[in-house]
Amino acid sequence: MERKEFYSKVIAYLNDRTDVPSDWAWGDTDNLFDVGIIESFDLPDLVNKIEEITGNEIQVSGLKVEHFYTLQTMYDSILRDMRLSC
């Protein structure tokens, strides 16, 4: 999956699930925890959504909260691991 498509699908999910301000300008390196878009209790649902988006199971044993800080770290760490395991 290309980065742009991944970002688009995750952003759509977060827009639907959270109180993202309508004027929020999504940046791929914005820390989504710091700006309050996601919190730690959102991670199980986010992992499930990323699995749905990509069609692949995420191996959670190697994941860290830091992997979910930004759109860029989600794509780079999670999708990279998926590609390496194929």
Could you explain how this protein is built, in words?
It comes from Thalassolituus maritimus. This is Acyl carrier protein. InterPro entries: ACP-like_sf. It is a single chain. 9% of the residues are buried. It contains 3 helices and no strands. It has one domain (3-13, 28-85). It is an all-alpha fold. Helix 1 (3-17) packs across helix 2.
Specify the helix fraction band: 40-55%
Strand content: under 5%
The number of distinct β-strands equals 0
Radius of gyration: 12 Å
Q: State the end-to-end distance.
A: 13 Å
Order of helices and strands: HHH
- Assembly state of the chains shown: single chain
Main beta-sheet annotation: none
User: How many domains is the backbone divided into?
Assistant: 1
Mean pLDDT: 87
Structural class: mainly alpha
Instruction: Sum up the overall morphology in one term.
Output: globular
Total DSSP helices = 3
Uncertain runs are none
Features:
mainly alpha, 86 residues, globular
Furnish the topology, listing elements before pairings.
Blueprint: H1 3-17, H2 43-54, H3 71-85
Helix pairs in contact: 1-2
Quick rundown:
With about 90 residues, the chain is mainly alpha-helical. It has helices spanning about 5-15, 45-55, 70-85. It has one domain.
